[in-house]
Amino acid sequence: MKKKLYQYTIELTNGPVTSNLLQRFAKFSGSRKAITNYVKVFKINTDEIMGGIEEFPTLHDFFIRKLKPGSRPQADADIVSPVDGKVEIAGKLQEDSQFMVKGQQYSLAELLGNAELAKRYANGNYAVLYLSPANYHRIHSPADGKISRQFVLGKKSYPVNQSGLLYGKAPISGNYRLISELETGGGNVLMVKVGAMFVNSIKLTNTRDEWKKGEEIGYFSFGSTVVLFFEADSFRFTENIVDGEPIKVGEALANML
């Protein structure tokens, strides 16, 4: 009953009208007045931000803020975290490329809209990284590699917070998502950037075919999620990857086998 009620409520409120209102407010010049309270509520470390908070013209500009050079050093690992956030879950894909998040079963084939591509990652590993409104929302490359394919799926986006993952209608595979496949020296990596409630805005700032580990590739306009998938027998998670623990851009995530 609780799950049905949650889904019904979200269906009533999640649409173009509410999405546009939210975006218009965040980009309205008057929204800058909310930045100071935003910093206090979410306990944001302003020392690492490029520029003072009084320099941001809108709340949206603050949300997609950049950090000072050197704020996110790159670990000596083959794969590093592409975002600041929390490790929601790091686990192993099943033989049929199914995986679990918050008790919900997901199909990689459905998420990718491509059964053949999903088979490539059967029995591989995956990691779900959740970004809250408090996090830095720029996205970085997790490794050195070449983009072999990149495409968009989905239209509407539902919440990807704790309640959304628990009670929502499979938001990871149903939301608007930008999917990139990266060819590395140790195997292919799928990077799925998932849109959040109301706002599908995932902006690419790097359109080159070659990515360098740690370089910026884009940003989320609001809280969201990144899911990484690794081919079987290619990478192993580093010891710091623990479900529920925070992680930052550039911190070790996996190494080649």
Query: Would you list the SSEs in sequence order as H and E?
Result: HHHHEEEEHHEEEHHEEEEEEEEE
- Low-confidence stretches at least 5 residues in length (pLDDT < 50)? 1-14, 159-171
User: What profile does the largest beta sheet have?
Assistant: 8 strands, antiparallel
User: What percent of residues are in strands?
Assistant: 25-35%
Radius of gyration: 18 Å
What is the rounded distance between the termini? 45 Å
The 3D shape can be described as globular
| Spatial sequence of strands, sheet with the most strands | 11-7-8-9-13-5-2-15
Note the total helix count. 8
Q: Which structural class matches the secondary elements? A: alpha+beta
Oligomeric state of shown chains: single chain
How would you describe what is shown here?
There is one protein chain. Helix content is 22%, strand content 30%. It has 257 residues and is of the alpha+beta class. The strands form 4 sheets. Strands 11-7-8-9-13-5-2-15 form an 8-stranded antiparallel beta sheet. It has a 3-stranded antiparallel beta sheet with strand order 1-16-14, with no helix packed on it. Strands 6-12-10 form a 3-stranded antiparallel beta sheet, with no helix packed on it. The chain is globular, with a radius of gyration of 18 Å.
Which descriptors apply to this entry?
257 residues, alpha+beta, 3-stranded antiparallel β-sheet, 8 helices, 16 strands, globular
Which SSEs are present, and which pair or pack?
Layout: H1 2-13, H2 16-27, H3 35-42, H4 59-63, E1 79-80, E2 85-92, E3 98-101, E4 104-107, H5 108-112, H6 115-119, E5 125-130, E6 138-140, E7 145-153, H7 162-167, H8 171-174, E8 177-184, E9 187-194, E10 202-204, E11 210-211, E12 216-220, E13 225-230, E14 235-237, E15 246-247, E16 252-256
Antiparallel strand pairs: 1-16, 2-5, 2-15, 3-4, 5-13, 6-12, 7-8, 7-11, 8-9, 9-13, 10-12, 14-16
